[in-house]
């Protein structure tokens, strides 16, 4: 198999995997807060989280590019202090993907938290069980379908991401070139055979992942009925 | 001693309603809050638990303020020594019976206390089962055992038996009494079942539209009849049969048919299907129609 192809596919799944893990770590506290808070700024945070659903990816990508550019104060500070450059780099692609896939993690988790009967949390409170222990021993184990859906959707969405990655990361082989960009790149070079190879693999993998989610969720639903 | 003086405006389907409760409850007492649904019983229980915040007032338990609106004290439920049984039990579905009971306990004490509670509640056989594999009565026992695990000062029971059939309810009422005697928690039971009130509690507060309308012992509160009875039952006439100069009236009391002799004069106010009171004053049983 073409080493470029392998390298690009590995990179794509690396980005998707790391993005999903970061999103899960951020997503659990954020969606917990969104599900249970009555704070007034909740609406604003919810809107910001959902923005990537409707915003053209190039808009987000453009602002990230400007923001993280070494000539900008923030980008310059990151560059000087942490030697971290978020434009045209692997780390930049991760940051962009995390922001862009945020709603795909937050929404399933938030509805998962919301679906847990309030009296389970209340029962835990009357028993003096701390919030953190309640989260890990009672809430999360009772919302496995939501967690699974959040992870899979984030992963699949990151694999298929194009606009943000292209804007922030560019098309550097082995660093920022993800499968979806490689398709574009190959089509531009009139190399339809390789483009098809990428496209078909993405198609098949996405189909398999989503099928798995639906099957697992059906099993969860049946277990709950039993 | 528990002093509860609270008020809260509730927004009900019939418009706003002010829930006001002032009462003193002695250590170890078994109290019921009785009344129609929507009277504010569950809200009152939740205010004691700290799950609902009163608009104003105080809740003082053994001298320690749990809630005081003037000095802005409001202890979180986690810091109140309570055990609560919810109407639908609220068992943790992902944990087994013994994990449910033991979750709140420190690891080193868990084994002993859980073992004891499993035994007392007759749940040893079910220790490893998940709640969805239990019957209603079994779930109720798990919920009660879980609420008792931390030896709470106050045990709060929100209509814990309402979802069960009569037989199971009677059985669990006995069990509740036994557990109350053993652990002696001050107990507040929400109920709208009169027989439960009589069987379980020494004192009852009747709530209606957010106010305590009556309180006292169940007999004081509910027996308006002037007769000083030795015993009395409510029943329903199922059959009337003439027998010589008297009549034999068959009355259904609970699950039993009782035969009562009635004179021709008494029989004029009775017919099949009539609700009656059977009472014995000294030696002669009386059979009286009930006002409906």
Topology:
The complex is a heterodimer of chains A (226) and B (292).
Chain A: H1 3-36, H2 42-54, H3 57-68, H4 73-82, H5 90-115, H6 118-126, H7 131-139, H8 144-159, H9 163-169, H10 179-188, H11 192-225
Helix pairs in contact in A: 1-5, 1-8, 2-5, 3-9, 5-8, 5-9, 6-7, 8-11, 10-11
Chain B: E1 2-12, E2 15-25, E3 30-34, H1 41-49, E4 56-61, E5 64-68, E6 73-74, E7 82-85, H2 97-102, H3 107-120, H4 136-148, E8 154-158, H5 166-183, E9 186-191, H6 194-200, E10 203-208, E11 211-216, H7 218-222, E12 231-243, E13 246-253, E14 256-262, H8 264-267, E15 275-281, E16 284-289
Parallel strand pairs in B: 3-9, 3-10, 7-8, 8-9
Antiparallel strand pairs in B: 1-2, 1-4, 4-5, 5-6, 10-11, 12-13, 12-15, 13-14, 15-16
Written overview of the protein:
The complex is a heterodimer of chains A (226) and B (292). Chain A is built from 11 helices and no strands. Chain A has 226 residues and is an all-alpha fold. Chain B is α+β, with helices and mostly antiparallel strands and 292 residues long. Chain B has 2 domains: 2-222, 3-Layer(aba) Sandwich (Rossmann fold), CATH 3.40.50; 231-289, RNA polymerase II/Efflux pump adaptor protein, barrel-sandwich hybrid domain (OB fold (Dihydrolipoamide Acetyltransferase, E2P), Beta Barrel), CATH 2.40.50. In chain B, 26% of the residues lie in helices and 37% in strands. Chain B is globular. Chains A and B meet through α6 of A and β7 of B.
Outline:
The complex is a heterodimer of chains A (about 230) and B (about 290). By secondary structure, chain A is an all-alpha fold.
Spell out the CATH superfamily of the largest domain in chain B.
P-loop containing nucleotide triphosphate hydrolases
Low-confidence stretches of chain A: none
Q: Number of DSSP strands of chain A? A: 0
Going by CATH, the architecture of chain A would be Orthogonal Bundle
Shape of chain B: globular
Terminal residue distance of chain B:
40 Å
Number of domains of chain A: 1
Radius of gyration of chain A: 20 Å
What is the CATH C-level name of chain A? Mainly Alpha
Terminus-to-terminus distance of chain A: 48 Å
Strand percent estimate of chain B: 35-45%
- The CATH architecture of the largest domain in chain B is 3-Layer(aba) Sandwich
Beta percentage of chain A is under 5%
- N-to-C SSE string of chain B, H for helix and E for strand: EEEHEEEEHHHEHEHEEHEEEHEE
Number of helices of chain B: 8
Low-pLDDT residue intervals, each spanning 5 or more residues of chain B = none
What's the total number of strands of chain B?
16
State the domain count of chain B: 2
Oligomer category: heterodimer
Annotation field: number of helices of chain A:
11
Mean pLDDT of chain A: 90
């Amino acid at each position: 198999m073409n080493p470029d192809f392998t390298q690009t596919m590995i990179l794509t799944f690396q980005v998707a995997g790391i993005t999903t893990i970061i999103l899960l770590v951020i997503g659990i506290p954020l969606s917990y807060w969104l599900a249970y808070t009555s704070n007034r700024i909740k609406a604003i945070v919810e809107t910001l989280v959902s923005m990537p659903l409707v915003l053209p990816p190039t808009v987000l990508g453009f602002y990230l590019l400007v923001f993280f550019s070494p000539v900008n104060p923030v980008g310059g500070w990151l560059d000087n202090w942490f030697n971290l450059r978020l434009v045209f780099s692997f780390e930049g692609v991760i940051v962009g993907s995390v922001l862009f896939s945020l709603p795909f993690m937050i929404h399933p988790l938030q509805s998962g938290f919301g679906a847990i009967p309030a009296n389970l949390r209340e029962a835990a409170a009357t028993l003096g069980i701390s919030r953190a222990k309640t989260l890990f021993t009672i809430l999360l184990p009772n919302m496995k379908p939501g967690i699974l859906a959040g992870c899979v959707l984030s992963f699949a969405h990151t694999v298929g991401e194009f606009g943000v990655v292209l804007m922030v990361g560019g098309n550097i082989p082995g660093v920022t070139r993800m499968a979806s960009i490689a398709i574009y790149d190959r089509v531009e070079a009139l190399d339809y055979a390789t483009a098809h190879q990428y496209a078909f693999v993405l198609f098949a993998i996405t189909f398999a992942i989503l099928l798995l989610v639906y099957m697992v969720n059906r099993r969860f639903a049946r277990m709950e009925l039993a | 001693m528990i002093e509860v003086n609270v008020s809260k405006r509730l927004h009900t389907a019939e418009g706003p309603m002010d829930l006001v409760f002032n009462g003193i409850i002695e250590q170890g007492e078994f109290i019921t809050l009785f009344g129609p649904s929507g009277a504010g019983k569950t809200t009152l229980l939740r205010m004691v638990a700290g799950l609902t915040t009163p608009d104003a007032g105080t809740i003082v338990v053994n001298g320690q303020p749990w809630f005081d609106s003037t000095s802005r004290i409001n202890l979180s439920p986690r810091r109140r020594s309570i055990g609560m049984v919810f109407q639908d039990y609220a068992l943790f579905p992902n944990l087994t019976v013994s994990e449910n009971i033991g979750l709140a306990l420190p690891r080193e004490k868990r084994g002993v206390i859980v073992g004891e509670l499993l035994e007392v509640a007759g749940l040893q056989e079910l220790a490893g089962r998940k709640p969805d594999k239990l019957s209603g009565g079994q779930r109720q026992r798990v919920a009660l055992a879980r609420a008792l695990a931390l030896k709470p000062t106050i045990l709060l029971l929100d209509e814990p038996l309402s979802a069960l059939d009569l037989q199971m309810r009677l059985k669990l009422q006995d069990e509740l009494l036994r557990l109350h005697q053993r652990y002696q928690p001050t107990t507040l039971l929400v109920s709208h079942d009169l027989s439960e009130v009589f069987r379980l509690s020494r004192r009852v507060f009747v709530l209606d539209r957010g106010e305590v309308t009556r309180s006292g012992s169940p007999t004081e509160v509910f027996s308006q009849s002037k007769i000083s009875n030795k015993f009395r039952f409510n029943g329903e006439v199922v059959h009337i049969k003439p027998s010589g100069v008297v009549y034999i009236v068959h009355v259904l009391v609970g699950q039993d048919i009782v035969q009562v002799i009635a004179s021709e004069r008494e029989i004029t106010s009775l017919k099949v299907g009539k609700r009656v009171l059977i009472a014995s004053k000294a030696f002669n049983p009386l059979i009286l129609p009930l006002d409906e």
